[in-house]
């Protein structure tokens, strides 16, 4: 058991591990709520579980949403069925690994969070503005990472449309076609029993497409999420007892060199995590190299 907790701690301590962090958060939430269900069942109050679990779900009814606004975020980390979470996380792992490899962990997390939020907004709007759904809004709630995951999948397909996955019994298939099939299924299933989930899929998909198109134009829609993550990481990051304060030379000229602090190194590493090594300036690369030689 100690090994499990150590593995989880190590996974969260890594800077470039956004995919695994998101997967672990989903799994941890799932396990905690399953244990809660067993506890409430043992004390003969299973109805208490429904009350607690509903706090994680996003209600379509705006009068309920007002009293749990956090659910716009928490619903994308909450699953109740084993198959629901297994298939969601497998789908997320396949496409999330691509996004993380090419865009970095911060942007993967940004797409996931923003996709989940836009998916939730699409769900709320549809259930309150479209007559076919409006009558159901008072008794409908959204849960699951599907909207966020569809954002990541569409982002991957928009960024790398010709990348191929090997599909069982079919062979190599371009991911743009795989994602197109999933989107088509979501559209035709809007009339089915999981209309809310399919609406969230489409909302997330729109975010994924727009995010990549804007990024290709030089606009990073994930900056607000990255800003919050940076602040949180700086607050939670333990202060190192070893401080890097050695001097470096500028343009081969000795003396009068500037000092490289631990905070500067941390900021440079954060920048690499967000945008890759090539985004560093010449001075930042020199600081990083000098620190590595100490």
UniProtKB/TrEMBL annotation:
Boundaries of every Peptidase S54 rhomboid domain copy: 69-212
GO biological process: proteolysis
Gene3D superfamilies in UniProt: Rhomboid-like
Domain of life: Bacteria
Keywords noted in UniProt: Hydrolase, Membrane, Protease, Transmembrane, Transmembrane helix
Residues in DUF6576 domain copies: 261-293
Gene Ontology MF terms in the entry: serine-type endopeptidase activity
InterPro entries: DUF6576, Peptidase_S54_rhomboid_dom, Rhomboid-like_sf, Rhomboid_protease_S54
Membrane topology summary: Multi-pass membrane protein
Transmembrane segments: 22-43, 81-99, 111-130, 142-160, 167-189
Pfam families attached to this UniProt entry: DUF6576, Rhomboid
A cellular component annotation (GO) from this entry: membrane
Subcellular locations according to the entry: Membrane
Keyword Protease: yes
PANTHER family for this protein: PRESENILIN-ASSOCIATED RHOMBOID-LIKE PROTEIN, MITOCHONDRIAL (PTHR43731:SF14), RHOMBOID PROTEASE (PTHR43731)
Recorded family membership: Belongs to the peptidase S54 family.
Stated name of the protein: Membrane associated serine protease, rhomboid family
Origin species: Flexibacter flexilis DSM 6793
Taxonomic lineage of the native organism: Bacteria, Pseudomonadati, Bacteroidota, Cytophagia, Cytophagales
């Amino acid at each position: 058991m100690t090994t499990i907790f150590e593995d989880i701690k190590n996974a969260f301590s890594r800077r470039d591990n956004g995919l695994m962090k998101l997967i672990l958060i989903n799994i941890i939430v799932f396990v905690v709520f399953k244990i809660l269900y067993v506890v409430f069942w043992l004390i003969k109050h299973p109805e208490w579980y429904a009350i607690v679990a509903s706090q994680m779900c996003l209600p379509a009814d705006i009068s309920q949403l007002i009293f749990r606004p956090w659910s716009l975020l928490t619903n994308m980390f909450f699953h109740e069925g084993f198959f629901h979470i297994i298939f969601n996380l497998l789908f997320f792992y396949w496409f999330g690994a691509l996004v993380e490899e090419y865009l970095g962990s911060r942007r993967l997390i940004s797409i996931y969070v923003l996709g989940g939020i836009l998916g939730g907004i699409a769900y709320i709007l549809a259930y309150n503005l479209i007559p076919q759904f409006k009558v159901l809004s008072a008794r409908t709630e959204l849960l699951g990472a599907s909207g966020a995951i569809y954002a990541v999948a569409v982002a991957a397909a928009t960024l790398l449309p010709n990348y191929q996955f090997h599909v069982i019994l079919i062979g190599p298939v371009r991911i743009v076609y795989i994602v197109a099939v999933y989107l088509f299924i979501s559209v035709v299933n809007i009339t089915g029993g999981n209309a809310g989930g399919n609406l969230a899929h489409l909302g997330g998909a729109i975010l994924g497409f727009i995010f990549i198109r804007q990024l290709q134009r030089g606009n990073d829609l994930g900056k607000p999420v990255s800003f919050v993550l940076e602040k949180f990481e700086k607050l939670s990051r333990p202060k190192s007892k070893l401080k890097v304060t050695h001097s470096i030379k500028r343009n081969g000229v000795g003396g009068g060199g500037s000092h490289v602090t631990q905070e500067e190194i941390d900021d440079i590493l954060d920048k690499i995590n967000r945008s890759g090594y090539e985004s560093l300036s010449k001075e930042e690369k020199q600081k990083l190299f000098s620190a590595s030689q100490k």
